[in-house]
Write a structure and sequence with these properties.
The protein is of the alpha+beta class. It has a single domain (6-103, 111-187), classed as 2-Layer Sandwich (STM4215-like), CATH 3.30.2000.40. It has 3 helices and 11 strands; from the N terminus they run αβββββββαββββα. The strands form 3 sheets. Strands 3, 4, 7, 8, 9, 10 and 11 form a 7-stranded mixed sheet that branches. A hairpin with a 2-residue loop joins strand 10 and strand 11 (161-176). The protein is elongated, with a radius of gyration of 23 Å. Mean pLDDT is 78; it is low at 204-214.
C-alpha cells in the first residue's frame, strides 16, 4: 500500500470531491463547476463560470487527538509485498488538522444558489462532512472527517456585472504516518557541488561558470 504524501493525497481528494457540482444554464443544459488550485499553483487556464478555487490556509498539529505507542496494520506502509497472515507494527501517526478555503465564483444568481445548496447539503454539511480519500493505487478509500469552520458571502461588481462569490473554510482531520515521514526524508539522495569548472560534465551547459565577489 504505497501511499503518497498525505498533503497531496488530501488535496487531490478535495479537488475530485468538489468537481461533482453541476448547475443548469438558461437552456437547461448541465454546466459543471470547474475546480482549480489557487496560487502559487499555475493551474488556472481560461476561466469559465462557474468555477472554484482551493487554497491551503493553515496546518495545525492536533495535540488533543494525538495518542502514543504503536499500531498494527495488516499491510506494509512502505509498499513491500505483504506476506499472508503477516502484521506490521508502526508508531502512531502524527495527527494534523488541514485548513482549506474553497471559493466559488459564478455570474448568474441561480447558479450561485445552486452551488450554495449543493455545497451545504452534500459537500460541506457542517459537522457531518466527510472526504473520501483513495490510496495511491485506488484499492481502498478512507473517509476523513471534514468540518465547515466558516462561511462568508463576498459578492462584488466587476465590469458592471455581478460576481457571486462564496468562501467556505473547511477543516480536514488528517495524519502523517511513519512511512510517509521516512519517504519525505529520502526524496533527495545526494547533492553535488562543483567547486571548479573542471568538475562540470562535458554534456552540461551551466548558466554561469563562476561567481565573482566584490
Amino acid at each position: 500500500m504505497n501511499e503518497v504524501n498525505f498533503l497531496l493525497r488530501e488535496e487531490q481528494a478535495l479537488k475530485t470531491f468538489l468537481a461533482g457540482i453541476t448547475v443548469q444554464d438558461s437552456k437547461s443544459q448541465a454546466r459543471p463547476m470547474k475546480v482549480w488550485f489557487n496560487q502559487p499553483d499555475v493551474e488556472i487556464q481560461a476561466q469559465t463560470y462557474p468555477y472554484a478555487l482551493i487554497d491551503l490556509v493553515d496546518i495545525v498539529q492536533s495535540n488533543e487527538r494525538q495518542v502514543g505507542g504503536d499500531t498494527i496494520y495488516d499491510y506494509d506502509l512502505n509498499g513491500s509485498v505483504v506476506e499472508t497472515g503477516a502484521v506490521y507494527s508502526y508508531e502512531q501517526p502524527i495527527l494534523y488538522d488541514l485548513f482549506y478555503q474553497i471559493t466559488t465564483f459564478s455570474r448568474h444568481p441561480r447558479h450561485d444558489r445552486e452551488i450554495l445548496l449543493q455545497m451545504m447539503k452534500y459537500k460541506t454539511p457542517g459537522k457531518w462532512g466527510f472526504l473520501p480519500v483513495s490510496n495511491v493505487d485506488g484499492s481502498a478509500v478512507q473517509y476523513k472527517h471534514m468540518f465547515l469552520e466558516g462561511f462568508a458571502k463576498r459578492d462584488t461588481i466587476t465590469e458592471d456585472r455581478r460576481l457571486f462569490r462564496n468562501s467556505f473554510t473547511v477543516r480536514i482531520l488528517s495524519e502523517m504516518n511513519e512511512a510517509e515521514a521516512h519517504s519525505a526524508l529520502s526524496i533527495v539522495n545526494s547533492v553535488n557541488i562543483n567547486t571548479t569548472t573542471t568538475d562540470i560534465p562535458s554534456d552540461y551547459t551551466p548558466i554561469r561558470l563562476s561567481v565573482s565577489h566584490s
